[in-house]
Design goal:
Distance between the termini: 18 Å
Structural class: alpha+beta
Order of helices and strands: HHHHHHHEHHEEHEHEEHE
Strand order of the largest sheet: 2-3-1-6-7
Strand content: 5-15%
Length: 394
């Protein structure tokens, strides 16, 4: 087993950089996927709102006796409902095409029937966001789509100003419809913007949690624990002392080789649960890598830190696991349920005021190595030259 404390400093720094860069890449990919999911969720809600808006216009035009616009709004309600259902089924491209097509056709038809002054052309402006964010492609493709939208808007303007509207409305009624459309367009943009901002804030929070958490155990990861250390030390919250416990599951490779990696993952999860339920609420626990865990004890003295380490060692030793429990076929066949005995070795070190956390962890690692060499299943203080009384031979 190779542990961080046995690597030369240059190699350790290089390895840590690789881990951090890989994690940053995963989070970056996650941000892109989350942003897209937030967009489709927002568009689904926008489709529902648009269907309701078309239904309101349907009632208005039915009252005014504008038959063609009644049928146009019936078609709009149906198309937006279908688009919403397609978004739920992840048929995003088809749904996007229906939304864009409906808005283009509806705005063009309503402008032709009532004239440019009716203000239905404003809804074309709501397509700018989905055409850039919702559709894939390069930046040039997105700019081309925006240019096409601008050309379509200008062409509709020029055309409707040259022809007489089919329905000639009273100027006051026409102005009322125009103001209603302005309000509707602003409501759609406001709704979409606020919903997207809320979804992105939620997604950012989830990604920040992901970036700070070990996926298997749910504990803090290495990067986040180091942030906690910096915050604790800068706030002077360590009080009489700041201790680190470096814990390593004994004979973990044997567990994996004998029972499989699935059981190995379960062992790590159970050990993580045992540690987190043992420590204080003010303490922090992280998975340091592989089968290693680290516990940060702010405001602890030497005796308190050693006692906490011993409680953790006892909690892990009390765990009861059996081989093949994860395999239904082995249970049905009367397979072996041999007990897996879990133990843990812990190195304890005080973070001195003028010392870096890396140096303290290195000393805890050296103490852990001495505990492994002395027989495992024990707690070793980095300040002791010999194995202390907090020990139990395997």
């Amino acid at each position: 087993m190779q542990r961080a404390g046995l690597w030369p400093n240059g190699v350790r720094q290089t390895m840590n950089s690789v881990v951090i860069e890989a994690g940053a890449t995963q989070v970056s990919d996650g941000e892109t996927r989350t942003a897209r999911r937030a967009l489709w969720t927002m568009l689904h809600q926008a489709c529902i709102a648009a269907a309701l808006a078309h239904f309101v216009f349907l009632l208005l035009f039915a009252y005014m006796g504008l038959t063609l616009l009644v049928w146009a709004n019936i078609g709009g309600v149906v198309l937006f409902i279908c688009s919403g259902l397609l978004l739920l089924r992840r048929r995003n491209a088809v749904a996007m095409a229906l939304v864009v097509g409906e808005i283009l056709l509806h705005a063009s038809l309503a402008s032709a029937l009532l004239g440019w002054e009716s203000g239905f052309h404003y809804y074309l402006l709501t397509l700018a966001g989905p055409l850039v964010v919702g559709a894939g492609g390069t930046t040039m493709n997105k700019l081309a789509r925006l240019l096409a939208l601008g050309v379509a808007y200008a062409a509709l303007d020029a055309w409707t100003r040259q022809v007489q509207p089919v329905y000639r409305l009273d100027p006051g009624m026409l102005a009322s419809i125009r103001y209603l459309n302005i309000a509707g367009m602003l409501a759609i943009i406001g709704f979409v913007s606020l919903t997207y901002a809320r979804l992105m804030a939620s997604a950012e929070g989830a990604l920040q949690t992901l970036a700070r958490t070990d996926a298997l155990t749910g504990l803090h990861n290495r990067r986040h624990l180091l942030e906690i250390v910096r915050t604790t030390r800068s706030a002077g919250a360590d009080g009489p002392g700041l201790y680190v416990l470096l814990c390593d599951v004994d004979h973990f490779k044997k567990v994996n080789d004998t029972n499989g990696h699935e059981m190995g993952d379960l062992v790590l999860q159970r050990v993580a649960d045992a540690v987190t339920t043992t420590v204080r609420t003010t303490d922090s626990v992280a998975r340091w890598g592989g089968e290693e865990f680290i516990v940060l004890l702010p405001g602890a003295g030497r005796v308190g830190a050693m006692q906490m380490a011993e409680r953790i060692r006892g909690a892990v030793a009390a765990l009861s696991l059996h081989g093949h429990l994860l395999h239904a076929d082995a249970r049905q066949a009367g397979g072996s349920l041999a007990s897996i005995r879990l133990t843990i070795t812990i190195g304890v070190a005080r973070v001195e005021p003028a010392e870096t956390i890396d140096a303290a962890i290195a000393r805890a690692d050296a103490a852990l190595y001495r505990g492994k060499a002395a027989g495992r299943n024990r707690v070793v203080d980095a300040g002791d030259a010999a194995i202390p009384s907090f020990a139990q031979a395997v």
